[in-house]
Amino acid sequence: MSASRTERLLNLLIALLDTKYGLSRAVLREKVYHSAGDGDAAFGRMFERDKADLKQFGFEIETILEQGLGSDDPASTRYRIGKESNTLPDVHLTPAEGTVLLLAAQLWERAALGSAAASALRKLQASGGLADVELPAGVQPRIKPAGQAFDDIIGAMNGKHPVSFGYRAASTGLEEDRIVEPWGLGSRFGQWYLVGFDRERKAKRFFRLSRMTTDVHVEARDHCEIPSGFDTRAELDSLNELPLQEASLEVAEGRLLGLRKRAVDTTSLASGPGRDGLSVLFRDTESLAEELASYGPHVGVVGPPELRDAVVRRLEGAAAFAAAPDVEIRFPDAGPAPRARKRTSEDQLSRMLQLVPFLVHNQGLPIQEVADRFGISRKELIEDLKILICSGRPEGYPDDLFDIDWENEHVYIREHLELNRPIRFSVDEACALLTGLATLNGLPAQGGLSEDEQSGALESVTLKLTGAAGEAGRLGAAVAVPPVAPAEASAFEVITTAIQEGSQLHLSYFSQQRDSVSERDVDPRRLYSLDSTWYFEAYCHSKAGLRNFRLDRIEKIAPNGHRVSTGAEAQASTPVKLYTPNDDDVVVVLHLTRQGAGLADDYYAERTAALPDGGLLAEVRFGNADWLPMFVAQHGGAVRILDPKELADASLAWLEAALGQYRMKAG
């Protein structure tokens, strides 16, 4: 995927847009491909590939046949692209509609659709349909990424390809290989599901992403279609919640206060020395197994057997990975290095087609600001601009080229070759905005809007974008995300009011990491969510620093009668980070498998380095080193600690102690 291919695609696009009557293959070969010496067959294959690539961007290439004799002769066939059929229709949004749209786009912070949402917003801004609006102060809902499998499945649905993966069936507990045509992806009961056609069983099936035991492989050479009218949300509504079960546990004395609060029985279970018997209700085996594995030697599962086996499987996977030979720790570049898929020629051309109308409507912006808006480096932006100024109409006269100047560190465009309108939304761009808007239903009113105003704005902007998206909006029904309305409505209201009024709050808060309840006086700064789990960022007076609190772990909260202090300013970053860096953090180097690579984003890795097997090295800051063995255990072989060595040894010892109690009973 070279810059020359990007330039060729761009020149072909301009040539086909600039002709009224169409251009023959011979003319295109001479003026665009400059490949008269290449064989006809090689040129034909290249031309067909390029046409297919342009179609993926939403450009419909018209084929014009000569009437009469020889009408089926490829030599006489001409090609063109209509100027208006591929541009984004005018979409004019009110300030209220712009506010809810920005909230919807920000939902996808680090998920696969995050860059697509940002791209769609840039198109609306370039077309003049979206005025500058800001996120409502203090509140930011977000969707929690579902890991690498989520990204891979979204890519497969966009490309209309099947996927293959290993899967552990809930009914048998056996691991099997599956090949599935992906029809939809959505969340129910706190879990992500793939809905699709299982080719082996020749029927529609639901697959839990957390039960996938291998990477998801996209079968790029194969093709499939999403059935017309398919609605993932309706399909997931047909699922029944799993029945309640009862887990029998042995818990170390004085430990796991949060688990004890959920116990339904603490008296009838036999337990050993230093252990208490607990009975806890649950619905999903894998979800509870992940939690119990994180408690390591402090809890043992008596039954049911499938829960016990699931916990042991996670602990064994984590221990095996922790004991594996070390890999070399080497970060090639200093500074932050966010994980990203390899950029391709298609990515670059897509960006350029946004860049031109963006520059037309934002003349004279500093070059670094333009790069930041597009999420690329200054060097990458300059490479884009260099390709643009060498591209143009086939005639090749000075007026037939893009005219862009950035020598004074501000970017101006004086000739845009009629590419001053953004192209239509891609499938993933339409999906990111439309599913994001659907997710906001039920969120308390934000940005100074009333409940009715916000509801009306959601409905009207959804209708406008659905019309503008056209066929690309069909995938919007293929992704169903969880609602972001807070379950802790009373705490949400108290905190929202305190943020608006500048009031200090007193709360009783349960810390799972420290396994204790503490009393805090805090200055609330911002509310944010991951799915329906809400947090708030606050200056904690007892810790003399910024902290993040989960709403579902607040036992009591109320104003304490004081105004907020000016002791610390909240970070201005948007989105707010779940983990606030502090001077006493421990810097840890993690080794992540490909399945666990998303943890680098979840925990805001400061540096990353890709490994040959698709895994990742990640340098991450943690505020509490005591919690790290729990972190390794719960992910069951997807992550291990490489450095500091003493923390790596401590996590392995924790895992071996946890497994020891099961081995002793088995023996």
Write up what this structure looks like:
With 667 residues, the chain is α+β, with helices and mostly antiparallel strands. 35% of the residues lie in helices and 23% in strands. It is built from 19 helices and 26 strands. Strands 4, 18, 19, 20, 21 and 22 form a six-stranded mixed sheet that branches. Strands 5, 6, 7, 8, 9 and 17 form a six-stranded mixed sheet that branches. A four-stranded antiparallel sheet has the order 11-12-10-13. Helix 9 crosses helix 10 and helix 9 packs antiparallel against helix 18. The chain is globular and about 90 Å long. The termini are far apart.
Q: Say how many strands there are.
A: 26
User: How far from one another are the termini?
Assistant: 58 Å
Question: So what's the overall shape?
Answer: globular
Low-confidence stretches: 335-342, 567-575
Assembly annotation: single chain
Counting H and I runs of at least 4 residues, what is the number of helices? 19
Relative strand content: 15-25%
Computed Rg: 28 Å
Share of helix among residues?
Answer: 25-40%
Class based on secondary structure composition and strand pairing:
alpha+beta
Q: How would you state the average pLDDT, rounded?
A: 84
Main pleated sheet: 6 strands, mixed
Looking at this protein, list some descriptive labels.
667 residues, alpha+beta, 6-stranded mixed β-sheet, 19 helices, 23% strand, globular
